[in-house]
Amino acid sequence: MEASAGHWQAPSVIERGLYEARLRDDWLTYYDLVADADLYLPQPRHQADADPEVTIFRPYWDERMRAACLAVHTAGMLPTPVEDPVFVIRNLGWFARVWEPGDPAYLVVNPGSPCEGFLAATPEGRARWRHHFEKSERPVGLAHDVVHTLEIGGPRQGQVAFGLAVGAQLFVQNGQFWNAMANHGDGYRKEREQLDQWWGVTSREEWVRTQERLLRADMVSGVWEFVLGLRHSLARDFAGTVSADHWREAAERMMRLRAEEAAEPRLTPDGVTRGRAASPSYLAAEVEGVHRLIGRITRYEARFRADGLLREGAYIRSVEAWDYGRASAMARWGLAARYCTLPEAEAAVIRAGRLVQVNYRSWADFSAGYALGRCLHFDEEEFGEWYDKTLRTHRALTTGLTSPWLTIPWN
């Protein structure tokens, strides 16, 4: 089949490559690009829910080829998520392996579009699929830790785009479009599995509760926010840098004062209520834990400065950014898993963006808060894989020419 004449604005780099290969009649490159791509296959919702391990083919009849065909889409060509059908991700190697006699005559990539390709499913054709897949030199899908933008079909400016940029760390890290509001992610089944595994979310009700907690920054540790907020108050009071020793001493005084206040009797509508005094050993352990936390934060900030994640002389005021970034992502995950609608996801994304603008001063300020929250939770001061991933994503978003952190104004 010949590509249509004239210029076509492809949604992303994936479809642009397929389109240009067709224009050149370069089918070797076309097959290579298909072998490198995630291929989204529609599935009936009831089937995906009833038996997630089974994938079925729903062919259509193509008058041009006079044959039954099976349609797949690349990531930039996916429709807006609806209740039914849903999509699962497969690759060209998988299709070569599972195709059986009696299955459709063609696998059709992005049917009806200028980058459409009919891949013959004869034994020789399937051997060709397998050959191109096996010689691929990189994992299937878009490269990780690179800013990928939907040029058509995804917002690039405005409130929704800003809110999506708040969640960009997770999608850049995972090799997905930062601005795919109508998100299919890793496919319906995988998105549901991941929400269950990482968040314990298995229903719309659980998604709503989790989304709201993240938007309220209710999942970050209150102890982290206490020590960071205390240092910020000290810095304003003394108009200068707060040493770690001064910070520890102030934190201990505050904790002991709070413990004394909690032990005092209180007058309530029900009468006088006895206070609850913490044991000396319990209070000592709490103070020691806060001292260690201050040390960890100090060391992380020093490493952040050395690696360019935090400017010299700056400090982090809050890690609520970590919840706001995940709130933006949770909206998209909920849509991909069909736990919410597109308008609900958009509303959550916009709200996350507004909260970030109120609580942070710049993308750099936001990124540092997000990075510290993520490292405190996952990295355990190993400066290992979790830290490296966070740093790579930060660098991609602060240097990539198409990064929303460089193209979307803060205010």
Order of helices and strands: HHEHEEEHEEHHHHHHHEEHHHHHH
Number of helices: 17
Structural class: alpha+beta
State Rg: 26 Å
Q: Which spans of ≥5 residues are poorly predicted at pLDDT below 50?
A: 1-5
Helix share, percent: 40-55%
Overall mean pLDDT score?
93
Total individual domains: 3
How many beta-strand segments?
8
Characterize the structure shown:
By secondary structure, the chain is α+β, with helices and mostly antiparallel strands. The chain contains 17 helices and eight strands. A hairpin with a 4-residue loop joins strand 2 (60-62) and strand 3. Mean pLDDT is 93; it is low at 1-5.
Please provide a brief summary of the model.
Helices cover 53% and strands 8% of the residues. The protein is of the alpha+beta class and 411 residues long.
Task: From the structure above, extract its key features.
17 helices; 411 residues; 8 strands; 4-stranded mixed sheet; elongated; alpha+beta
Layout of secondary structure:
Layout: H1 13-23, H2 27-36, E1 39-43, H3 45-50, E2 60-62, E3 67-72, E4 86-90, H4 92-98, E5 106-109, E6 117-120, H5 123-134, H6 159-166, H7 168-173, H8 188-199, H9 204-215, H10 222-238, H11 244-263, E7 266-268, E8 271-273, H12 280-306, H13 320-336, H14 342-359, H15 363-379, H16 385-399, H17 404-407
Parallel strand pairs: 3-5
Antiparallel strand pairs: 1-4, 2-3, 5-6, 7-8
Helix pairs in contact: 1-2, 2-5, 4-5, 6-13, 6-14, 9-13, 11-12, 12-15, 13-14, 13-15, 15-16
